[in-house]
Design goal:
mainly beta, 11 strands, 128 residues, globular, single chain, four-stranded antiparallel sheet
Length: 128
């Protein structure tokens, strides 16, 4: 049974920072790409960032480039999302997910159906 557990969400003022963690169990994520998505109030879930199983290859939604950084610690089976310069429009529930296929190197990082396991989400609220 694969489980992903997000943590690190909370309430922060605009301009502040948060670091989200996603701890995986039941699957060694070292050979899997991992993604972060978010669901804003009243909106569809959207792609935020992803990290390939290959070291150093990352992908970002345009609006978070330069502010968010995705990273991974394979030894801890954990993925992180460092969020800096937070804005009220970043307020959302943030989810991590693991890619279906090992060693994935294609372009479909933003497609939800390409991920098979999801965490329960962690709330991030940015006040103005």
């Amino acid at each position: 049974q694969v489980q992903l557990v997000e943590s690190g969400g909370g309430l922060v003022q605009a301009g502040g920072s948060l670091r989200l963690s996603c701890a995986a169990s039941g699957r060694a994520i070292s050979t899997y790409g991992m993604g972060w998505f978010r669901q804003l109030p009243g909106k569809e879930r959207e792609f935020v960032a992803a990290i390939s199983w290959r070291a150093g290859i990352t992908y970002y939604k345009d609006s978070v480039k330069g502010r968010f950084t995705v990273s991974r610690d394979n030894a801890k089976n954990t993925v992180f999302l460092q969020m800096n310069s937070l804005k009220p429009e970043d307020t959302a529930v943030y989810y991590c997910a693991t890619k279906r296929s090992r060693f994935y190197s294609g372009p479909l990082w933003q497609i939800e159906s390409e991920y098979d396991y999801w965490g329960q989400g962690t709330q991030v609220t940015v006040s103005s």
